[in-house]
Design brief:
single chain, mainly beta, Jelly Rolls, ten-stranded antiparallel beta sheet, seven-stranded antiparallel beta sheet, 2 helices, globular, hydrolase activity, AL/BT2_dom, 3-keto-alpha-glucoside-1,2-lyase/3-keto-2-hydroxy-glucal hydratase domain-containing protein
Length: 282
């Protein structure tokens, strides 16, 4: 059976019941997370900031301090749409990816209003070496991270689509952003965001152990009047700099690629991974 057909069978079997977290699992001690951030430096990461060459860490935007990846703008005169991304050096296709993040401080001078307490995880993205110097965002699926303003509802782990589109409930969705059903997280609290991505089949977002969004068939924007675009089987993963200071501590992944042609095994591994409700500690 072809790989795509196996993934469709898997997606069909991954109903809501399977993907609901349960506590008390005997598998807790065996979750094979691999740390992509070593807690010391940015080894194995590539920087791309708009209007700057690859690996020009303009204004020390991305630094490591106190065991966290810190995104800061202290050396900026004004933000001036200099959106940045920190790319892990290896692409991935099928995986469970996670970060723990918190928004801190005040937004950089000149940052757009919509970017207040706004950042993101870019998945299934383009290779940073192919980005134009003045390109703002990589073509990718963005798991949008948002913080609350202290009073209003504002979901996180939303979906935005720079250069991409997706399918939900059988419909091709071309709008830029779609909100999740997450709670609002105010202040400087740590939040855990996880993303399950199964090639070009299924993507699911979780926040502090709760499923908040799912969709299928991530793809590039359609061309020449077509409804569907080129399906994205995988790509780069990057963390965003979007004008509000943010910290990332855990940046980790479970690579599921070796199970991609073994749907029964993949199903079992996913059930094991999702049997634990992982919540960021403060």
């Amino acid at each position: 059976m072809k790989k795509d057909s196996k993934f469709r069978l898997l997606v069909a079997s991954l109903g809501l019941g399977l993907l609901i977290f349960c506590t008390g699992s005997s598998f807790k001690k065996h979750t094979p997370w691999v740390q992509l951030f070593n807690g010391k430096d940015l080894k194995n990461w590539t920087i791309k900031i708009r209007y700057h060459e690859l690996n020009d860490n303009f204004g020390d935007t991305f630094t490591v301090k106190d065991g966290n990846i810190q995104v800061r703008y202290d050396e900026y005169d004004t933000f001036d749409e200099q959106f940045g991304h920190l790319f892990y050096d290896k692409p991935f296709s099928s995986y469970l990816f996670a970060v723990e993040y918190r928004f801190v401080g005040e937004q950089a001078k000149g940052g757009p209003g919509w970017a207040y307490r706004n950042s993101g995880i870019m998945i299934h993205g383009q290779d940073p070496t192919t980005m134009a110097v003045d390109q703002d965002f990589p073509n990718s699926i963005e798991v949008q991270l948002l913080g609350g303003n202290g009073k209003d509802d504002r979901s996180t782990s939303n979906l935005c689509t720079p250069g991409t589109q997706f399918v939900k409930d059988g419909e091709v969705i071309k709008r830029h952003c779609t909100n999740s059903i997450s709670h609002t997280y105010h202040g400087d609290q740590w939040v855990r965001a996880e993303v399950l991505a199964l090639g070009d089949s299924l993507i699911v977002h979780y926040v502090n152990g709760e499923e908040v969004m799912r969709y299928e068939k991530p793809q590039l924007d359609a061309q020449n009047g077509e409804e569907m675009g080129q399906l994205l089987k995988g790509g780069s993963i990057s963390l965003q700099s979007e004008s509000h200071p943010i910290d990332f501590r855990k940046v980790e992944i479970v690579n599921l690629e070796k199970y991609a042609n073994k749907p029964k095994k993949l199903n079992k591994v996913i059930k094991r991974l999702l049997s634990e409700k992982r919540v960021a500690k403060q």
